[in-house]
Amino acid sequence: MYFLSALKELGSYTLLMWRVFSRPDRWRMTLKQIPVEIDKLVINSLGIVVIISIFIGAILTIQTKLNTNDPLLPRYSTGLVTRDTLLLEFSSTILCLILAGKVGSNVASEIGTMRITEQIDALEIMGVNSANYLILPKIIAFVLMIPCLVIISMGVGLVGGYMVGMFSDVITVNDYIYGIQYYFIPFYIVYSLVKSLVFAFIIVSVASFYGYYAHGGALDVGKASTKAVVNSSILILLFNIVITNFMLT
Description:
Elements: H1 2-20, H2 27-41, H3 46-67, H4 77-116, H5 119-125, H6 130-167, H7 173-181, H8 187-212, H9 218-248
């Protein structure tokens, strides 16, 4: 029963994406909507990205130093581990899991509210491809700008670790800076950005799917939003394994 339900949802999702990526009725309207979506989905998420990243960078530095306090380990290992953890996992996977909660619920609630208030039905009556008109600008905006959030998260996370060296005696600033510079592999940034692009598409498309097919009242919009966050988070973790296996092994 669960398998059939999942198969039905996959089919509905595929058909919706087919409509989303069909040629827009008016390119001018789509392009005009993209900056608006960038402001709603990306700029409004910048604050939480900065705050979480700076604290995670600081916590990673402290925990790594405390758990690798061995005279046999080089002193720069703390900075090295903090840098690679931020680049490989936090600033792409964990950050996108957090954004799945913020951005995904926002998108699902917005489209779901339009569905139950019959705004989407009104667009269809006017001959507008509502899926394309409502969802495509959101996907373009978030996928286009997610690399900026990831790069900012990486930089701010490293600054968080640097602040630990400045304002505590856990690690010296020189050891930390040497560690984040030691044996730097640029491909890790490429890997992280590729993952973030896939995750950004998953977040917005899955949230749009559950919002678009919401029905009932306000309570059902909340349920659709919850399902969007849960399922997009599961897909992010699944694709994280697939992409990691493909790009790093």
